[in-house]
Known about the structure:
This protein has a five-stranded antiparallel sheet with strand order 1-2-3-6-7, sandwiched between helices. It has a two-stranded antiparallel sheet with strand order 4-5. It has three helices and seven strands, in the order H-E-E-E-E-E-E-E-H-H. Strand 6 and strand 7 (118-124) form a beta hairpin. It has one domain: Peptide Deformylase (Alpha-Beta Complex), CATH 3.90.45. 27% of the residues lie in helices and 26% in strands. Bound molecules: ligand GNR and nickel (II) ion (NI). Ligand GNR binds next to strand 1 and helix 2.
Amino acid sequence: MAIRTILHxxxxxxxxxxxxxxxxxxxxESLIEDMLDTMYDAPGIGLAATQINIHLRVIVVDCSRExxxxxxxxxxxxxxxxxxxxxxxxxLSVPGVFEEVSRAEKIKIKAQNAGGTVFELExxxxxxxxxxxxxxxxxGKLFVDKLSTLKQKRIRKKLEKIKL
Length: 164
Ligand code: GNR
Ligand code: NI
């Protein structure tokens, strides 16, 4: 049980491409626990290991409204993307910024669980948006990269000024 520090844009470490997980041991289990603790504390509906400066392909998500439904995905890969949907997004690494972003409406992914077992999942709605947002973190991308260059400049300036 540990809450880790979340990196903030424009920290260059957020631009790191995360490496595949090859060892499914207790270190991965405790990383997932820490990521969930950090996500719930924030609070957020998703977190990529990149955001806590761990450059491994691990994401956690909980988009549920009532009961806690923690999910984790190791080495996630997008297999199918169908349709387009616009949603207002935010990011724990870009505090105070909320902008419309368009993404696939329905997705199918393949991933591994903490035991290394491969599984597939189909998602739509907020869960699909969140999973796509998290996978992009693992490739060093942020949702603000999809905005106009003018908006990107303003966001960078604003965050450099407040330096949370
Ligand atoms: O908490 C979060 N909310 C959110 C809202 C809309 C689209 C994506 C997200 S993910 C974000 C947490 C986060 O930064 N994950 O990387
Ligand atoms: Ni994010």
